């Protein structure tokens, strides 16, 4: 079974109780009570139109796309390790 491509969005809200309705657009991963934002994951092919719909909701202040899946997570050791020069 092949999993669909998913993309994440950070949605800044003014009302967290109303933000529970975002579950119908995708999977709510996290809701910050202190900073008033919601992290939501949805299918990539429908994400742009869903983000436009979400941004029109009255309790939504701002919608940002998450770039987490585009960040490089494999690192190479190009530079020499200098920790042995600083040890006692």
From TrEMBL:
Its domain of life reads: Bacteria
> Mind listing the UniProt keywords for this protein, alphabetically?
Cytoplasm
What's one Pfam family here? DUF2129
| Record-given protein name | DUF2129 domain-containing protein
